[in-house]
Amino acid sequence: MYGWEMLSFNIHDGFLEAIVRGNRSGLLTAADYNNLCQCETLDDIKMHLTATEYGPYLQNEPSPLHTTTIVEKCTLKLVDEYKHMLCQANEPLSTFLQYITYGHMIDNVVLIVTGTLHERDVNELLEKCHPLGMFDSIASLAVAQNMRELYRLVLVDTPLAPYFSECITSEDLDDMNIEIMRNTLYKAYLEDFYKFCQKLGGATAEIMCDLLSFEADRRAVNITINSIGTELTRDDRRKLYSNFGLLYPYGHEELAVCEDVDQVRGAMEKYPPYQSIFSRISYGESQMLDKAFYEEEVRRLCLSFEQQFHYAVFFAYIRLREQEIRNLMWISECVAQNQKNRVHDSVVFIF
Amino acid sequence: MSSDSSWARALVQISPYTFAAIGIAVSIGVSVLGAAWGIFITGSSLIGASIKAPRITSKNLISVIFCEAVAIYGVIVAIILQTKLESVPSSQMYAPESLRAGYAIFASGLIVGFANLVCGVCVGIIGSSCALSDAQNSSLFVKILVIEIFGSALGLFGVIVGIIMSAQATWPARA
């Protein structure tokens, strides 16, 4: 019942909620980003980061630093925090936390399968996988030749198995197929997560459904923009959109028939929450769209901390850390490649 | 009263001492339940929040003390109520005055018990928010403390009415 979770939420989850809020105060602030953007070398960045919560992870790194090392260590911190939370969590919070990683699992599966298709070394690919999305039999993904084998040999034992029901075909894997598989899986995953959150009820359902709807809508727009000019038919495109969210169902009908970016814009501007995103981008410019969506997402994630006694803070914290790692990666890449004038292009301030 | 087998008659047949004893039990038992509930809501958040911000622990003990005060109200009223119990001759057991005394102590216990239950839960929830927000921004502590004080005043209302109510409990004088 809505509102009454205040009475019982803390029995199982009060301690962890307080911990995750404590972790949140360790996120880098605008002042930190301003300092980081002033850095001249990667060692400067390391020096600034040692003053933050990343300190213990970076301080023993030898001096010729690489961007990948910084990103790897920052991700390691996120993974450590995630594992700590998962150890402490009770049902249904532990299921909720596991749901958060399924997105990374899908990305990892796609990464390995695409890599194998292009004849890359499996170990090299495994290093690139996101550690949150690892599962035991991930290395054996490389042997699969088509979707059916992929499913039967490997994925049937993973949590992703139920999501595969819609995309089992005997066709050989190719780039297009894999991309469709990724989006079909993601669609099934988001719908499942959405249903799970609705089942949890209360403030969790209210906030998580809003966040997931935004995610689904963002994916719908990205699918549309990326599929313009490809051989994907309108019906196939329509099938990749998740069956919930603000755009469902009329917005999806409009997006399915879009032929260029300005038509997408026309379809999206009918929805007030997305109007503000599109109004910030000038016509014909789809590069900045990603950043605008990220900014809106971060704004929504930060707002979820304004309410107490719900699970969305865990989701929001992990997402905000991931955004922070993306920011750090961009800043260090810009510094490493002497492109400091572009440093503000893709950094999304969190606070 | 009504016919011989009605609920109203059953209520009148219950000894006033039973009512009085239940009243006293509810007054302390339910108050302690409320206090304990509040302390665990506050405490679990406080422990978690103090990992990253250890400075909040001693300040936020005030929230725990506010919850504890709720249990003390219950103890005080239970003691007051039990001093109201007097023995009456068995001929006077079901006299209207005895019944009134029994009901008064019963009602007083219910009032205090449930007022303190919700008061304890209320203070506990505010205390939990207080701990979390103090950990983020220490200037919020005093502001939320004011809210907490108003919350804990709710329990006092119950105590006041309960004590006035129990003043009605006068047993028939020994003949």
From TrEMBL, chain A:
This is V-type proton ATPase subunit. Belongs to the V-ATPase V0D/AC39 subunit family. Keywords: Hydrogen ion transport, Ion transport, Transport. One of its GO terms (cellular component) is vacuole. The keyword Ribosomal protein does not apply. The keyword Kinase does not apply. Subunit of the integral membrane V0 complex of vacuolar ATPase. Vacuolar ATPase is responsible for acidifying a variety of intracellular compartments in eukaryotic cells, thus providing most of the energy required for transport processes in the vacuolar system. V-ATPase is a heteromultimeric enzyme made up of two complexes: the ATP-hydrolytic V1 complex and the proton translocation V0 complex. GO terms for molecular function: proton-transporting ATPase activity, rotational mechanism.
From TrEMBL, chain B:
It is a multi-pass membrane protein. One of its GO terms (cellular component) is proton-transporting V-type ATPase, V0 domain. Residues 22-81, 106-165 form the V-ATPase proteolipid subunit C-like domain. Coiled coil: none annotated. InterPro entries: ATPase_proteolipid_c-like_dom (IPR002379), ATPase_proteolipid_csu (IPR000245), F/V-ATP_Csub_sf (IPR035921). It comes from the Eukaryota. The keyword Calcium does not apply. Keywords: Hydrogen ion transport, Ion transport, Membrane, Transmembrane, Transmembrane helix, Transport. The keyword ATP-binding does not apply. It holds the Pfam family ATP-synt_C. GO terms for molecular function: proton-transporting ATPase activity, rotational mechanism. The chain crosses the membrane at residues 20-49, 61-81, 101-128, 140-165. Its main location: membrane. It is found in: Membrane. Belongs to the V-ATPase proteolipid subunit family. V-ATPase is a heteromultimeric enzyme composed of a peripheral catalytic V1 complex attached to an integral membrane V0 proton pore complex. Proton-conducting pore forming subunit of the membrane integral V0 complex of vacuolar ATPase. V-ATPase is responsible for acidifying a variety of intracellular compartments in eukaryotic cells. This is V-ATPase proteolipid subunit C-like domain-containing protein. It comes from Digitaria exilis. The lineage of its organism: Eukaryota, Viridiplantae, Streptophyta, Embryophyta, Tracheophyta.
